[in-house]
Amino acid sequence: MDSVTQAALGAAVAGVVAGRKCSPKILLAGAALGTLPDLDVLISYGDPVSDMVKHRGFSHSMLVLLPFSLLLAGFWHKWWPTRFSFRHLWLLIAACLITHPLLDAFTSYGTQLLWPFSVSVAVSSIFIIDPLYTLPLLLMLVAGLIWHQQMARLCRIGLVISSCYLIWSVVALNIIEDRVREQLDGTPLAGSPVFITPTPINTVLWRVVVLDGETYWEGLTSLLDEQPDVDFLAKERGSWLLAEKSVYLNMLESFTHHFVKYEQVGASIKVTDLRLGLAEYLPFQFVLASQNSEGSWAVTDPQRLEGPRVSPKHLPALWLRLLGNQDIDANLCHIKECPKPIHIGV
């Protein structure tokens, strides 16, 4: 999630754990602790693929954060005496640190909660920025700064509301999963890999990607749709053209669970993460091979390409699709002149 959300969550958690001892300083400390794990973005792993794959690694691991919280609590308790017992202080620090990766695990990016073990958790029920999750926390924190005596109680209210919204996101995801599974059953794509994620800043409109060899199917479905069937568009996924796979391609395929597409662009092969983004706006694109003057292909050191930016003219179409207008195609580029649903496998 974004830094504002993580800071707000850390502050609210600190306020709840502190209870009657809560103060503006405690909220500030909680906000700082809540954003601390994301400082790993300052670390360079030497190439753009590693920077992407290894983000949310050791700094988001329960196996690192728990002992780190003990060390930090011990250092804090010794050098900055507080009204908190060591146990209470450790609980506050640990709760602020651990809730950060737990929230991140609900996004589609993936979080290595058990690093160094290669276990990546990605529930994919909430977008990385969602005001409906963040605003209750921020409003209650502001209210707590105004009414100091109710600070802990207001933090608790904000945390309950945001947590209920997070639970709702999982419920909505299950509804969409059931909808897609029922549509694919009995078709050649039954059992194919499926990726489902919410579209930006909501949990009503969802993006669905289905892998089908060198093709992938992409569609949008809203909880407000009158017809539950997803209108899919078939898109070219391509394949890796070289006999040799680089270590970077293996990393990327493992990280994305093979939800990538391969595309020859001039004298380069571009590999794109299909999970993160929307329609044609996929931000994580890498050049992993190039062709020399003799026409031979060879793997290269990865180079990240700048992804296309969302055009403001497409935002109204996204809003209409969210409201259940099924005449908007999956590229969100235009209203279909002759709406004709594409049913997978038919």
From TrEMBL:
InterPro entries: Transcription_regulator, YdjM-like. The keyword Ligase does not apply. One of its GO terms (molecular function) is hydrolase activity. It holds the Pfam family YdjM. It comes from the Bacteria. Keywords: Hydrolase, Membrane, Transmembrane, Transmembrane helix. The chain crosses the membrane at residues 58-77, 89-109, 121-147, 154-176. The keyword DNA-binding does not apply. This is Membrane-bound metal-dependent hydrolase.
